[in-house]
Amino acid sequence: MRVEENKRNKFWPKISLKNWISKKREKQGYEADIVDETDSEVEDYQDLWDLDFERRYSYSATEFTLPRSYSSGFQSRHSSATLLPKDSEVLRSKFSDTHQFRVFVGTWNVGGRAPNDKVDIDEWLGSLKEPADIYVIGFQEVVPLSAGNVLGSENNLPAVKWQHLIRRTLNSTGSTGGSFRRSCSTPSSMWQDSALDFTDSLQHEFGGINLTSFVSRGTPILSPTLNSRSLGHRPLHNRSRYAMVASKQMVGLYVSVWVRSELRQNVRNVKVSCIGCGLMGYLGNKGSISISMSLHQTTFCFVCSHLASGQKDGDEIRRNTDVAEILKRTQFRRSQDINGAGLPETILEHDRVIWLGDLNYRLALSPRVTRSLLAKEDWDALLEKDQLQIQRRAGRVFNGWNEGKIYFAPTYKYRANSDSYTLEKVKLGGKKRTPAWCDRILWYGDGLKQLAYVRAETKLSDHRPVYAVFAADVEVLSRKKLKDFLIFKPAKVEVEELLPFYDDRKFMRY
């Protein structure tokens, strides 16, 4: 009995800290822009897709009933679900097409330095010839990782400054020309103008049936916008090119996701999960912020992390452990529908996953050899000793993940406002660090093709910012397929193709 009591007393501080952090996280929300829903293609889609799956509708002498089983995959209007059931390939192929969207992902450890008016991030965010559809921007050390910032109240003033700078850069007047508008045309934006005409044509072909009542009830596939559970929402100016979907800070970590304003209403199920891996294994001086969301019918997860530091032998094992803990402990809020169909709750359950941040993996080389290879710009020889690549090849971390080929110089450690590594020039009392590719971007799963993997040359901190550009496959509900389905022809072939069939070995499948 006394032994058990001694064990409880021994672990009481850690347990208390864990409970305190958990309660604190429960009250945390995230910031997001809200656009005017009265002028959105989502309302048009809502009219088309709000079918009452439990009722019968007649057209001439033909009666049509969608099988009751399909209603299990859809949720009520006030649910957070948006997706077609993942286990029904027939249904997904019937109603959706695949389109590509450009995703920009950037990461930067700013070393606790807040931006000033002279900081120019246009080379980092604004250098693309063709602007992206989605921007994911992650920072590490937006505040110094002092005891006061780690244990005390959160200082969000630097994050607000970075947010303002990002908004100004993405929405700069220099990128608002007509060619930019044309390059950003997507199926969703092109369909908006024709949705109402489509509804009128359906009413005509259905012989004057009142389709307002036909499509106004039942179960939507597209859910409402972010609700009151999300904190800090801001109205979006009508002229803003990009809308902020989510913005979250945990101590020094800060990440925000931006989408083109016309896509904002196609983004649903935004959720945030913060994991602390720092002091005592739970504090937020190290860890991750993960943002989950769905765009049209495809789910995305963006993980921004800052892993354990240090360049001693064996420190890479601590970083491996941080990755394993983040993958294990990251949980997104369970949806409030009946079965949570199509709503991922862990990182790897998403369709598209991208991991960014200061991963802190170093080079297993002596300073002398490193200096020689740096002078030759022999990146391949240096990367052979990169801890992350060594650990991945051994299957110890990021097993099954992908990283693009690196063609740029190590991003750490520079003297502030300088092109010199601390390996080359060290101030009296300063720390000497072997240069390394600490700042990385990886991805998991199919449907992502990396188009670029580049570093920028902004000199604010001892790290250089890095970005990658991806072409992401996204399933988009097809207006044509929907029309073909709703305007069922005299022969019931199309309906019967969707009827469930039975397998002798399993339960009913679709």
UniProtKB/TrEMBL annotation:
Q: Name one GO molecular function term.
A: inositol-polyphosphate 5-phosphatase activity
Does the record carry Magnesium as a key word? no
The record ties this protein, via InterPro entries, to: Endo/exonu/phosph_ase_sf (IPR036691), IP5P_plant (IPR045849), IPPc (IPR000300)
Name the domain of life this protein comes from.
Eukaryota
Q: Name one GO biological process term.
A: phosphatidylinositol dephosphorylation
The segment(s) forming the Inositol polyphosphate-related phosphatase domain are 99-478
The protein's matches in Pfam families, at most eight in alphabetical order, are given as: Exo_endo_phos2
**Annotated keywords:** Hydrolase
State the signal peptide span: none
Under SMART domains, the record lists:
IPPc
The family assignment reads: Belongs to the inositol polyphosphate 5-phosphatase family.
**Which PANTHER family does the UniProt record give?**
TYPE I INOSITOL POLYPHOSPHATE 5-PHOSPHATASE 8, TYPE IV INOSITOL POLYPHOSPHATE 5-PHOSPHATASE 9
- This protein is called Inositol polyphosphate-related phosphatase domain-containing protein
